[in-house]
Amino acid sequence: MSSKRTSPTIVITGTPGVGKSTHAQLLAQEAPVPLKHINVGDLVKEKNLYERYDEDWQSYEVDEDKLLDELEPIASAGGVILDWHTCELFPERWVDLVVVLRCDHSKLWERLETRNYPLKKIQENNEAEIMEVVLEEARSSYVPEVVVELRSEGTEDLESNVSRVVEWIKAWQADHTSDSEES
C-alpha cells in the first residue's frame, strides 16, 4: 500500500444479490473523500475484458489479465471502490479494506428471483452464500485486519454499514496523513 495515497482502495464484495452496488453507490456519495465507484462486472462488459459469454449461466468469463491491467493504475492510486462478487483476484497491495456483505439465504433467493436469474444460478449463488465462499476467499487472500464481514438485509443495515465504513475512511486518512508527515 503506497504511502503516497490520499484515499483508500476499498473492495465491496459478496454473493450476487447481497447489495454490493447499492452499498458502493451510497458510500461514494457519503465518503469524506472522493471515491470512484467501479462496478467491475459493468467494466468487464464495457471494456470487453472477457473471453466469452456463457449462455447457460448468463455471465461473462472474465479475462483476468486484461481486467487487472485495466484496474492497476486506478486501484493502486487509491480513491476507488471496487464492487464485485469476488475479491481474491485483486493484489493485496491495492487493497486497504475488504467489505464482505452477507445476507440470509432466503432473502438472497428472493432477490435473485426478482433478477430473473436461471434456477441453477440462484441455487449456486445461494449455496455459495450458505457456505461463506466469498468470506473465505477474502480471509484467505488478505490480512485479517482489512477484512470486515457485514450483514446486508435491509435499509438499516445499509445505513449502518456505510456509516461504519465512512468512520473507517476517516481513521485511515488520519493514519495516512500522519504517516506522510513523519516521512
TrEMBL record:
Its EC number is 2.7.4.3. It comes from the Eukaryota. Its main location: cytoplasm. SUPFAM superfamilies: P-loop containing nucleoside triphosphate hydrolases (SSF52540). One of its GO terms (biological process) is ribosomal small subunit biogenesis. ATP binds at G17, G19, K20, S21, T22, R115. Residues 39-62 are annotated as: NMPbind. Residues 114-124 are annotated as: LID. GO terms for cellular component: cytoplasm; nucleus. It catalyses: ATP + H2O = ADP + phosphate + H(+); AMP + ATP = 2 ADP. One of its GO terms (molecular function) is AMP kinase activity. Keywords: ATP-binding, Cytoplasm, Hydrolase, Kinase, Nucleotide-binding, Nucleus, Ribosome biogenesis, rRNA processing, Transferase. It is found in: Cytoplasm; Nucleus. It holds the Pfam family AAA_18. Belongs to the adenylate kinase family. AK6 subfamily. Interacts with small ribosomal subunit protein uS11. Not a structural component of 43S pre-ribosomes, but transiently interacts with them by binding to uS11. Broad-specificity nucleoside monophosphate (NMP) kinase that catalyzes the reversible transfer of the terminal phosphate group between nucleoside triphosphates and monophosphates. Has also ATPase activity. Involved in the late cytoplasmic maturation steps of the 40S ribosomal particles, specifically 18S rRNA maturation. While NMP activity is not required for ribosome maturation, ATPase activity is. Associates transiently with small ribosomal subunit protein uS11. ATP hydrolysis breaks the interaction with uS11. This is Adenylate kinase isoenzyme 6 homolog.
